[in-house]
Amino acid sequence: MKKIPLLLLGCGGVGRQLLQHIVSCRSLHAQQGIKLRVIGVCDSKSLVAASDVSVSELDDRFLLEACRIKSAGSSLSTLRSFGECQIYGHSELPQRVIEIASLLGKATGLALVDCSATMDTIDLLTRAIDLGCCIVLANKKPLTSLMEHYDKLVSQPRHIRHESTVGAGLPVIASLNRILSSGDPIRCIIGSLSGTLGYVMSELEDGKPLSEIVKAAKSLGYTEPDPRDDLGGMDVARKALILARLLGSRIVMDSIKVESLYPEEMSPSKMSIDEFMSTGLPLLDKYINDRVQKASLHGNVLRYVCVLEGSRCEVGIQELPKNSALGRLKGSDNVLEIYSRCYSQQPLVIQGAGAGNDTTAAGVLADILDIQDLFN
Ligand SMILES: NC(=O)c1ccc[n+]([C@@H]2O[C@H](COP(=O)([O-])OP(=O)(O)OC[C@H]3O[C@@H](n4cnc5c(N)ncnc54)[C@H](OP(=O)(O)O)[C@@H]3O)[C@@H](O)[C@H]2O)c1
Ligand SMILES: *[C@@H]1O[C@H](CO)[C@@H](O)[C@H](O)[C@H]1NC(C)=O
């Protein structure tokens, strides 16, 4: 049986779902001759590791208990009484992870799996790369920081996978890598990469006011607790930056033109969420509706997309033909149109759910299995 050791950073919605997928795929992986060994799990406060990471792992009963404890809002350190393990507090965490990476990196290709939502893992990840580890990311932040960090993280392309950073489980990065490595030049990518904004923009076509659509989306749980986190476009910009860098652009976040759907005066530092929802948003209804109507005169619809073309990288509202893949988008799917030499008249289209713990964690798991061919 081929053993793949991994250490999970982040045990929130995605991290827990990943542990559950790992446990429920045991017999499938066994048929493929593979065993995933989870040797450690950490959250923002502690690391729980197997008692001897070289030979032992956290067993399934333990992993499921870790999920249960985290869902209940308790600390990982309460697992001390549940089974044999080592527990380290926040201050010892980075040093201990590096020790484990030195021990297992070159020898086994230990995968550090980043399902956190913080910049703070960058240092660990870059050092892990030097120690021969593989890294798998759902977290976009390490890839959207300084160019110098990005260069380090991708310095060994076979040691990194980050499919779930763009379009969750959709095969976006893998498809682009295949096109790039076959020498087919990518001319343009247009993508609706926010489920929330996809939903909002398609609902606008029926003439509904923006304010009501956003209210409905919020109560359906489609938005972040503060919908401005979606409407501002920064999450789409992070994904755009990851795609731009994949295509070879050496740019940083600040060089991306991002159109926010709300003005500066309505930003979180100046208005509470309630105030924004009740008095801010309705002020935007007319402007957006006028734009929708103007677009429809030309047979177009509005979509909130990222556009990558040559050195251009922009995020915001674009008028697109009603009868294109993006124009037909309804609901919260992500849609990407990729134009290259091979896909020149009709684009390659990738569409499907672009968020959710389940699909995101499935994407991470597939990434972990994808790098294991490097090691015995
Ligand atoms: N959910 C989706 O649909 C989706 C889709 C695509 C990508 N993603 C990305 O996937 C990542 C995880 O999302 P999520 O929804 O699971 O987030 P989440 O629920 O906020 O979980 C984040 C986890 O990271 C932990 N953490 C924070 N700082 C840490 C550190 N320095 N070291 C190790 N762990 C740390 C947190 O610890 P505590 O528990 O102690 O707070 C928490 O367990 C995010 O980067 C997100 O952008 C999510
Ligand atoms: C993802 O997991 C978190 C934490 O368990 C939960 O609050 C959230 O509703 C889940 N999201 C989805 C779309 O299932």
Automatic annotation (TrEMBL):
One of its GO terms (biological process) is methionine biosynthetic process. Keywords: Amino-acid biosynthesis, Methionine biosynthesis, NADP, Oxidoreductase, Threonine biosynthesis. It is an enzyme of class 1 (oxidoreductase). GO terms for molecular function: homoserine dehydrogenase activity. The keyword Oxidoreductase applies. It catalyses: L-homoserine + NADP(+) = L-aspartate 4-semialdehyde + NADPH + H(+). L-homoserine binds at residue 224. Belongs to the homoserine dehydrogenase family. This is Homoserine dehydrogenase. It comes from Trapa natans (Water chestnut).
